[in-house]
Amino acid sequence: MSQSNMHRPSIARIRTTGLALAVLVLAVAAIATGAFAKSTPSKRVAKEAANATLGKTVLTTTSGRTLYSLSVEKNGKFICTGSCLSVWHPLTVPAGVKPTGPVKLGTIERPEGGTQVTYKGRPLYRFGSDTKAGDANGEGIKDVGTWHAATPPQPKAAPAPQPQPAPENPYGY
Questions:
Q1: Lowest-pLDDT range, 24-38, 47-61, 106-120?
Q2: Which of 3, 23, 145, 148 pairs as cysteine with 71 (C-beta 3.0–4.6 A)?
Q3: Which sequence spans correspond to the domains of the chain?
């Protein structure tokens, strides 16, 4: 064997190395896919309930407390801060948790820290004077904006049947 052939790898060694490299790449890909397959943890934080006082279906906490939003809190602008939070309690989730409910919910970071749940981009709150499930004492309260119960899309009423023209001769003669 010539000296130049002594340092040249054999075809078998190249195949073995290539196969080992392919197995390694597949193993890394499987581990990475498994890491990405783990979804963000989620937590059910809201449900919907018919509210007799308001005459409509509203979003509530899982324990039935009405959820509200402030009309002027949108596009990431917070109005309810400081002493407001002693009356209006933000619906929050731990950082990294995806809130779920009967509608698509999101999150926003509060100015003082914490992750607040949003619906249609508006932060959600409970009202301190609502003492039990079904209370809606915060509806319509005005300060720098107006507080309203968060309402999911309401079912549309079936259209009223259209009156049918009477036949000219209803007796068939």
A1: 24-38
A2: 145
A3: 11-37, 42-149
